[in-house]
Write a structure and sequence with these properties.
- By secondary structure, the chain is α/β, with parallel strands linked by helices.
- The protein folds into 2 domains: 10-266 and 472-491, Aldehyde Dehydrogenase, Chain A, domain 1 (3-Layer(aba) Sandwich), CATH 3.40.605.10; 271-460, 3-Layer(aba) Sandwich (Aldehyde Dehydrogenase, Chain A, domain 2).
- Helix content is 39%, strand content 21%.
- The strands form 7 sheets. A 7-stranded mixed β-sheet has the order 14-17-18-13-12-20-21, with helices on both faces. A 6-stranded mixed β-sheet has the order 9-8-7-10-11-23, with helices on both faces. A 3-stranded antiparallel β-sheet has the order 5-6-24, with no helix packed on it.
- Strand 10 (236-242), helix 9 (245-255) and strand 11 (261-265) form a beta-alpha-beta unit.
- Helix 3 (80-96) packs across helix 7.
- It is globular, with a radius of gyration of 23 Å.
């Protein structure tokens, strides 16, 4: 395999990558779209197209679901120990091919190479984690007290559908299909139309690892043409969706007639809450990466800094200096911050900030569209901080999904709690304080699916991840990530 430096150098010269998968992956092979239609994928760091891929339709989805239904009957009867070995082999292959996967994800999504490398490494670990669970999914014996024998079985639900977002196209894919495969389910994946390639590469990798043909299928294309037919297919027994609230509500409505199981991971407006006794340097550093990692395009980003008045000035001064020092540019050059995923999304971020400015919101740094300093190309937005925001301001209540931090101040713990819980979202929260009593008390009272103390990104794949309220429902990662893909059956033997 070509060294990553050579791969990157060649890409900057040619503007394309050789041997990218450009068709659907169905029944263990790459197949062209039924209609023959194609779409272009764009490099966010240059704003230019670098590859084509298949534009799927309902006919392609039908083909993929039929393949998954046949694959399910094979895979569910595969011994759990064998499934364990295959998922471990998938992890090994991912590590062996990590460089190429990371380069593709960086180009396709716009994120930095380092961030993409972290996503790939974490995805390999997800396969290992759920490999360890595959042969431990046991039921239980039940004492009925009447002499009858009774026990439960954990069964795979069947064909599962996975609608994967563009911000984490590799890790979000794997956190869904790894537990599904561990339980014996099959899968049909619809990756985001702006980031299709790593899903196709991983599906083919899984077949090489030993997953039978048809167990994992990928149909690329738009949400309307490919995503909608997938979630409404009556053969699909569980849908895992990550994306916007609006689209998530639509998915809920679409699965309802078939009474299909559903996991939703939607938007966020997560607070980083800093009390007066917190370490100012740690707060500034935590807030910086909570919002500017992946250019703020993270559902669980710490997009609100809820800070005590006594700490506000010092932390804000540090934050402004650090934000202004961030280097942004093409992801393959490994800057501090990469590009925004699409021109459309860039315009949405700029619109949010422009309307805030028109309302009189104080923009203490950033606020503008930019380009790669080396080429003058690409879709970039400056690291931006909005200060002294009212609880009702749109920049506080609406998800911007970009490198834009909203700062709010408080004086009392009760005020901090009210601000923290003052949006429709409840995905994540960070608490910074030296007082562990305050930390634990706030952690219990903040409405969020996950809370970290004194380090915003302190969680791991071993912990369940998901939100409450308009941030969704259900949990992924951790042992809880297996729950969506199993159902319990009670069996009683009259004696």
């Amino acid at each position: 395999m070509m060294p990553p430096d050579q791969m990157i150098s060649n890409y900057f010269v040619a503007g394309t990558l050789p041997e990218l998968p450009r068709n659907h992956f169905i029944d263990g092979v790459f197949v062209a779209a039924n209609s023959g239609s194609r779409m272009e994928s764009f490099d966010a760091g240059t704003g230019e197209a670098f590859a084509e891929f298949a534009a799927g339709s309902a006919a392609d989805v039908d083909h993929a679901v039929a393949s998954a239904a046949k694959g399910f009957e094979v895979w569910r009867n595969t011994p759990p120990a064998r499934r364990c070995a295959i998922l471990n082999e998938a992890a090994r292959l991912m590590r062996a091919e990590a460089d190429r996967l990371a380069v593709v994800e960086s180009i396709d999504s716009g994120k930095t190479l380092a961030e993409a490398q972290g996503d790939v490494a974490g995805s390999a670990r997800l396969f290992e984690y759920y490999a360890g669970a595959a042969d431990k999914l046991d039921g239980r014996s039940v004492n009925l007290g009447n002499g009858n024998a009774a026990f439960t079985l954990l069964e795979p639900v069947g064909v599962t559908a996975h609608i994967v977002p563009w911000n984490y196209p590799t890790s979000t894919l794997v956190r869904g299909i790894a537990p599904a495969l561990a339980t014996g389910c099959s899968a049909v994946v619809k990756p985001a139309e702006t980031t299709p390639f790593t899903a196709l590469m991983i599906a083919e990798l899984l077949v090489r690892a030993g997953v039978p043909a048809g167990v994992v299928n990928v149909v690329t294309g738009t949400g309307i043409e490919a995503g909608a037919p997938l979630v409404t297919d009556p053969c699909v027994r569980h849908v895992t969706f990550t994306g916007s609230v609006t689209t998530g509500v639509g998915v809920m409505q679409n699965v309802a007639p078939n009474v299909t199981g559903l996991t939703l991971e939607l938007g966020g407006k997560s607070p980083l809450i800093a009390f007066s006794d917190a370490d100012a340097e740690a707060v500034a550093e935590g807030a910086l990466w909570a919002i500017f990692s992946n250019s703020g395009q993270i559902c669980s980003a710490g997009s609100r800094l809820v800070i005590h008045c006594d700490l506000h000035a010092e932390v804000l001064e540090r934050l402004i200096k650090q934000a202004q020092g961030l280097r942004f540019g093409h992801g393959l050059r490994n800057p501090d911050m990469g590009a925004v995923n699409s021109e459309r999304h860039l315009a949405q971020i700029a619109g949010h900030v422009g309307r805030a400015s028109a309302r009189g919101v104080e923009i203490v740094t950033g606020g503008n569209i930019s380009t790669d300093p080396e080429t003058g190309k690409g879709w970039f937005f400056e690291p931006t901080i909005l200060d002294n925001l009212r609880p009702s301001d749109d920049a506080v209540t609406q998800e911007i999904f970009g490198p834009v931090l909203a700062v709010q101040t408080f004086e009392s713990e009760e005020e901090a709690l009210a601000l923290a819980n003052g949006t429709e979202f409840a995905l994540a929260a960070g608490i910074y304080t030296r007082d562990m009593s305050t930390a634990l008390r706030m952690a219990q009272r903040v409405d969020a699916g996950q809370v970290t103390v004194n380090d915003y990104w302190a969680g791991g794949i071993e912990l369940p991840f998901g939100g409450n309220r308009k941030s969704g429902f259900g949990r992924e990662k951790g042992l809880e990530g297996l729950d969506a893909y199993t159902r319990s059956k009670s069996i009683t033997l009259a004696v």
